[in-house]
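Box 3.1 — From sequence to structure: Pirin-like protein
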Amino acid sequence: MANTTSSNIANKSEHAVLPIIPPSDPSLTKPANMAVPRAIRMAFHAVSQSEGVGAKVRRSIGTPKLRNFSPFLMLDHFSVSPGAGFPDHPHRGQSTLTYLLSGGVDHEDFAGNKGSLGPGDLQIMTAGRGIVHAEMPRQNPDGSANEGMQLWVDLPKHLKLIEPQYRDLRHTEIPTATLDDGKVEVKVITGQSHGVECVHEIAQTPVWYLDVTIRPGGKISQALPANWNAFAYTLSGNAQFGTGDEQTTIAQFHNVVFEQSGDTVVAEVDESEKEPARFILVAGLPLDQKVVQYGPFVMTSQEEIYQALRDYQGYQNGFERAEHWESEIGKSMVH
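Predicted structure (token representation):
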């Protein structure tokens, strides 16, 4: 994370990376009055469950309801208190994006990288050929839990075995778009919204990640790249998605999955609501490849999964540094 050294980072120039803002995309250049809203494919409640050691997560992608929504593999809305967390564990074949909503989370991996996330910060980890790390909560002065979102993004097959990479994206690096007379604010973590563009590369697979807050009476029509898969996860309040007869009111802790066809996602909050609605809106380029997953290993064939298990258990082919390694933050867990 914050102390990542260049020796542990793969040279991105070795691999072709598709642009975050697709050139000449008709969905991004249509006049608002000609844009076609995306319909809702499904919306469902994310049920709280236990994960890690003592942590609570609301998982909405990576469940029987929504599995392998390419390029997205998993979405967890997590809440972890001191004494709980995600101690030493491996990954191979995916990127993980951790977006902190409140509190703080420390990170440490077997390559010697360490860092901390604060509210509004994003940690980008590309596991590539292999990483072992720990993610543990901070002790907040008021005793509150640490809350955030973790999204797993699949890697293109030809990038599955690159060297692991880390980057922290601080909240100060994230611009905000303000619209509808100040009733709508969009933190543009990556992508573009109403004249504000941010092209931070948060995964080798192109992804847009927007944090949207709509006050009562506010409305947004957000353009998204054509044919990308997209979803919204509602963090608070009641938001109305869609238009006309297809408009649907969605409450807190729901995942709203949109159809691929269409140009925009339309959302608003009724003037009668007592509080704003907040949700993350995420879109990504689907990958034309098979997904074979075994826990933290995500590859494209069963044999590659067997190889990942052999490599991890035998401390080889990317996992050499896992032998005899223990994170310091993992040792601090309260038992």
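Summary of the box: The helical segments are 26-29, 302-314, 328-331.
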